[in-house]
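Please, structure for the following, as tokens.
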Amino acid sequence: MSKVEPGRVREDEHLIVEGMDISGHWNRMFEQRVLWSHDTGPLEKLTAITGAESLAYCYQCGKCTSACPVDSVGSYSPRKIFRKVQTGTDLLTNPDLWLCTTCANCLRVCPKEVNMISIMPALREVAVTEANVPPELQKAFENTFQHGNPLGEPARKRADWVAEAGAPATILPRERRPVDVLFYVECYWSYHPRGRDAARAFARVMEKLGVDWGILGPEEKCSCDSQRLAGERGLFEMLAEQNIRTLAKYEFSRMVTSDPHAYNALRNEYPKLGAEYPIQHYTQFLAPLMGQLPWKRRLDYKVTFHDPCYLGRHNGEYDAPREMIRQIPGLQFTEMFRCKANGYCCGGGGGGMWLDSFTGNHVTERLSERRVREAVETGAEMLVVCCPYEVSRFEDAVKSTGNEGRLLVRDVIELVDEALR
């Protein structure tokens, strides 16, 4: 490779070559960029935190900005966060720290692998230790610590939904025996009124299939994955260890859960604590069994489907819920423009489920509202979901966007149950 002779390199203050002005002000673009005009201390402070190192990798290409769901309703992306920090913003005390939903769409397109799914929990953990936490998120943390669930409900009521299911469910602490399937219900299907609707529907479908299954009832506690992503790693580890001890008391062949966040925790995080389980999301478990169901009626609905970030992008499952939808008699299915790997986020991930009021002060509309508008644009009359966070989020968004009476929201298990009755 030839070397440039230093003596031949010069910058002329005024130079015209073949009619083109290539004076000094033009050819200075080839110089080293001036980065030393900014204090790099705030960036170095963050990238020194274990887990947040990759924030320094950003080279401002901007691919993440168009992929970030929060930027669609505000001004946000890893690129913009990097630039703010580079120019002096203290992210640990800035609202931007809490707006990321850890949906992973930015990581999907980032050529430098700036990993917000690692960066944000690491930085939030520091903010938690310094008591810089939005009050509504802090309340969810306290509820989880005191009651084992973010809703603050008593453990003794965790299996109350079973009595109204009209189908049996073995509550293992009351009837200790081996089961084929241990169903990890999680908090919103256990306590939230709309979540309970889905839980009861699931019990009736399991009865139709003749599955031998049971639940932990009052001994189950939150899997705590969203709390971990919101910065409470200590709380996550405490409850995970309690859940692992509880699960060790019972015999089962496999686990199934209602919640993509619990699925992510049990599949990817609990093994780091020494506990590995054969775990499936309920759509993965039921999709191969749909042909065994005794359908009673056709459902003449035009539907579209929302991909949960933690089932899809985080864990690669896009087909199972769609296979369930396709096999329900009568449904007309239309995809939204943003779907599968490029699916839009509901706003509930990464602690966003408990930051609704806080987030609302920093965006033009909630992510759930934007997603409802996209569902309406397809011409569908029903938005189908398979994550416990989403039914209530989207039903609220239907009302706040003025689409009440125009769009229904249902969990896919509710449609299966409806077609069986």
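The chain has three domains: 41-129, 135-287, 292-419. The chain has a mean pLDDT of 94.
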